[in-house]
Amino acid sequence: MNSKVNVAIIGSTGYGGVELIRLLASHPGVEVTSVTSSSAAGSPIAEGYPHLTEIRTDLLDDVDAALIKSKADVVFIATPAGIASKLVPSLLEAGLKVIDISGDLRLKSRELYQTWYKKEAAEQQYLDQAVYGLAEVYGEAVRGVDLISNPGCFPTATLLGLIPAVKAGYIDPSTIIIDAKSGVSGAGRGTSLGTHYAEINENFKAYKINKHQHIPEIEQVLGDVAGKPVVTTFTTHLVPMTRGIMSTMYASVQGGYSSEDFVSLYRNYYEGRRFVRIRKDGTWPATKEVSGSNYCDIGFSVDERTGRVTIISVIDNLVKGAAGQAIQNLNLMMGWDETLGLQFVPIYP
Amino acid sequence: MNSKVNVAIIGSTGYGGVELIRLLASHPGVEVTSVTSSSAAGSPIAEGYPHLTEIRTDLLDDVDAALIKSKADVVFIATPAGIASKLVPSLLEAGLKVIDISGDLRLKSRELYQTWYKKEAAEQQYLDQAVYGLAEVYGEAVRGVDLISNPGCFPTATLLGLIPAVKAGYIDPSTIIIDAKSGVSGAGRGTSLGTHYAEINENFKAYKINKHQHIPEIEQVLGDVAGKPVVTTFTTHLVPMTRGIMSTMYASVQGGYSSEDFVSLYRNYYEGRRFVRIRKDGTWPATKEVSGSNYCDIGFSVDERTGRVTIISVIDNLVKGAAGQAIQNLNLMMGWDETLGLQFVPIYP
Amino acid sequence: MNSKVNVAIIGSTGYGGVELIRLLASHPGVEVTSVTSSSAAGSPIAEGYPHLTEIRTDLLDDVDAALIKSKADVVFIATPAGIASKLVPSLLEAGLKVIDISGDLRLKSRELYQTWYKKEAAEQQYLDQAVYGLAEVYGEAVRGVDLISNPGCFPTATLLGLIPAVKAGYIDPSTIIIDAKSGVSGAGRGTSLGTHYAEINENFKAYKINKHQHIPEIEQVLGDVAGKPVVTTFTTHLVPMTRGIMSTMYASVQGGYSSEDFVSLYRNYYEGRRFVRIRKDGTWPATKEVSGSNYCDIGFSVDERTGRVTIISVIDNLVKGAAGQAIQNLNLMMGWDETLGLQFVPIYP
Amino acid sequence: MNSKVNVAIIGSTGYGGVELIRLLASHPGVEVTSVTSSSAAGSPIAEGYPHLTEIRTDLLDDVDAALIKSKADVVFIATPAGIASKLVPSLLEAGLKVIDISGDLRLKSRELYQTWYKKEAAEQQYLDQAVYGLAEVYGEAVRGVDLISNPGCFPTATLLGLIPAVKAGYIDPSTIIIDAKSGVSGAGRGTSLGTHYAEINENFKAYKINKHQHIPEIEQVLGDVAGKPVVTTFTTHLVPMTRGIMSTMYASVQGGYSSEDFVSLYRNYYEGRRFVRIRKDGTWPATKEVSGSNYCDIGFSVDERTGRVTIISVIDNLVKGAAGQAIQNLNLMMGWDETLGLQFVPIYP
């Protein structure tokens, strides 16, 4: 490519934002020309993030559509929930392409958003306009669009682990149980007792049981794939580690398929999609095996005794679950190869 | 009590063994008179475990029934699987009372043991004789017996979390799915790549899916309680922490019971049993909240959308899941209060 | 003892406070009759600390001298710095005996306090009255007094590691360099970016270099022991773990003493003091080897090449570095054996 | 560059080896054409390292000079100590350029090697031939040579932190004390009780005090820079984390220089060297701020009270302390820009 695309990052002082900065720093087609922060505008980004010393020496910009448009063509929104819904209209109007990581535009129903997020939803037209950027399933749909909604971290691991089986009818969607686990970075950089080191270290806990806002997102997509409403049981747990999500999923097998059949089905479904790796029968991925990378690794165990399959899916929540997948969507939006700038080897150990 | 009971510990250089030493050091009715090790006999136990410096200055004894009998009345076996089955006959014959923590005597069926443990089973008469020491369920059964089989760590958390609901018919046993997570100390002190620090830290992984030897143990007891065979889905995961087990359990609710109904049911069932704490509706226990103690804490979430209940049960795998429960069994065996010497406050943070 | 001493804990919702609750729960001579909190008075203590469920069912009291005196004879102050200085006068006046863990009464000089703590110092008469409770050095001095100032966590590990050598002239006090490391619980339960899980996990950092408020405390005591002013270099680091302090200390050896000579010197100095364990030559203690206990373990390495000794001293910051030592002081204050209720085996692993 | 340089990695199943694979995968001038292992030859490398699934599908080669020469022009040796000394002669003879990460060729004196490493040293001619690859100090010296000895992890952090001050006479070399801390990956992938998860997690310990084999390496270089023999006190500690080294260094300041003077001195010394970042006065680097990157960050605190400076230097032990610095040396050896393929943003959090 001859010239680079200029991008801005709103919410660049959060973990999703700095991960975008990390990944885009080595992307051959992109220049990050503006990093913004409503709380720290005017100060150097490296002050709050010393790992960026001498890498980014610029000051944080204010969150202002016109200012951003003067510097960039595409903008990532990496704020907490409830902010993007307010920013998107002016950003689009200013002529920017928008990739929203925050979750505000994922649910097509305003009511559902308000029920689960306990916040005012975005206007319906933006919910309608936003294309859900789960590249391995809906990849082509994002080409050329102006507004992409990036999937949530848990939905990414979960949906990539379930969709081929649901679509092929290998499992009964009404029996799906999802036991998810996440590293603590998923909670962001805002301090709270729930992310206080001494409370989390050497501790394992469940939270938001049957109440997590990713439940309707998962069900919306599964219902779309299944062609009928799907209701799931979904539990989230906090793991004493920084990065990584594992989704352990259970469902009743329909049709007597073996683990090997699942491996074959998934390999076919994800053929050509570099970021999904299906593990061979009898092995299952661990979160560290995708750490720092855009991979989603999946493994299976069908148990003949119970007639159920256990599906294990892992991602790095900040990469495939946030910044990496957002860049993958940018690549597709721009008509580039989806792997551009994302071919990292996982960091191990 | 006037005089102390003398006890010996076989396998005292493993984590279960040193935890027995820690807990028994402050038990008012017990004196640990012999710590044995087949691999390190003759050397001071504090050499391999410097935290015992000046606390235990004795040398490790050989594993010899006559020697042990000359020093003790009761013996704990805290070896890896496959050893107790060989030791128990001579220990009983020597006149010792035996509490086996190793798992060799938990399954009543030799075939089942050999299938899941991949080792030669103990002789049937010892399997028949051994009383399963899940105190809150079968407590009275261990009074006065000579041979107790201490439950496994995962079965302890899981069974205490499921039995009242299965017994009362609140859940359909055929729908039980158990997603279990354990700290790394459960794997013992033997070194391996699977317990190598750099492989486990910042990592979360599943293992032995549908193959764990605790599956038949759980099913044996659930079947006993349900009055019919029960088959379950059971997955184990390794958490990057040292101590703690959480069992997250799912089942279909029969009869429209709410979370509060479960709370009431369990509080009634465990009435008077100090080591089970039922959390109030809407809160769930974390592993750190029982760390270092003999508690098993349990919480519930019934989801009306799916008709399923999620049950969370936590223990310290080395205490309630091993050494603490073994001492609780000793207490009952001796006719003492089951809490004697075990009333520790959990260590937090 | 026939009747128990009633004690109150001010600041019982901090980590030092809950550790006092944990340790005192099994102390044979003490009853905790009041737990207070200025921020959460009126609510059950177990609400903020679910590990205390069914163990302490009382509500938090307000911080009120008369109320406390109506319930207790002795009070522990476990607040952040800057509060005890205000509370102590009324507590003493109400007739309570006071053990202050907060640090407000450790420095004899108001100027020094204000320089290093950046807060208003207590009135001079209380600084004069408070006896510094480093039991192994000044133990007898606290017998029968009304006001004890409990040493800081770093000073405890550091002073116990240095005093015998300074006193005996084995090292040159002007060459002392102290490189200290602490687990994160030392920073308390108040949330901040510096104790946010994702910032601390997999991270090791130095802080407050040459600025830590424990520097003048260490120098005050070393100067007292040396008989002349001592100035030291002291660096603190944060270790990604919850509990534990290690002080690694360096000094030039005077007189050609070997590691074995240091071992002998320290064993003699601490003869009869159960909580200091001197490791044999060639071995050094690790923090986990004292975790959960009141021990301070010390080891040495004299290097003939450089003429310097390296001294390693470890404690559990919440026990020997705070709550445990405070109870040890209570024991001495009451004329009891200093080990009463404190004879825990360290928790390992 | 038109064509890529083919490189082989001996010891590619160790942590240093897989880190080379990770970093070289995105290096624009290099192709890794052979990964070898004496213990696992013939099996796919991704079998032991599932994070490489679909990234490297080749089988491990035997360690054979002729075979390697048929595939590569340059070879990295990333074995444990004591192996490179035997391999180097045949590799050089086969016409390969060699970069040794193992430490066998760092000490110029065979006696010193044998004293500290307790192994047979390499022949003197290879010790003489090997150029010590500390790029920021001796960078130009490695251009075009055939045999480079890559510095050790602790020496890298320590020497970069000390050399400008020693060279400029700002500190007295005879007063240098080095308190070093390392993550556990530095101990390699070989299992042992010392790297067993439950022994290391929530633990902090010192090891090899005054005995570490990196002592003579540090002293050799410091002596070279100072122009006279230097003897140092050096202590190593194990931090419960996977990656990262911090060297906290102490020395007496000569000439009344302030922290700001040190900052200026170091900024001048490292002018143009992208991988050393000098922190501004009053701030110090943490290990996570360089994690996954080739940076070495350095900060200072001069204490007027003691006349000493505290210098903090951090690196990622597997990158700047091993594989990254080895690639930096390859770049220089090839006449490329030293940053080629190494411009990673640190991974944070």
Automatic annotation (TrEMBL), chains A, B, C, D:
Q: Name one GO molecular function term.
A: N-acetyl-gamma-glutamyl-phosphate reductase activity
Give the metabolic or biological pathway.
Answer: Amino-acid biosynthesis; L-arginine biosynthesis; N(2)-acetyl-L-ornithine from L-glutamate: step 3/4
Q: Where in the cell is it found?
A: Cytoplasm
Q: Does the keyword NADP apply?
A: yes
Keywords annotated in UniProt: Amino-acid biosynthesis, Arginine biosynthesis, Cytoplasm, NADP, Oxidoreductase
Q: What class of enzyme is it?
A: oxidoreductase
Enzyme active site: 153
- From the UniProt record, list the reaction(s) this protein catalyses: N-acetyl-L-glutamate 5-semialdehyde + phosphate + NADP(+) = N-acetyl-L-glutamyl 5-phosphate + NADPH + H(+)
Family membership, please give it: Belongs to the NAGSA dehydrogenase family. Type 1 subfamily.
Q: What is this protein called?
A: N-acetyl-gamma-glutamyl-phosphate reductase
- The organism is Paenibacillus plantiphilus
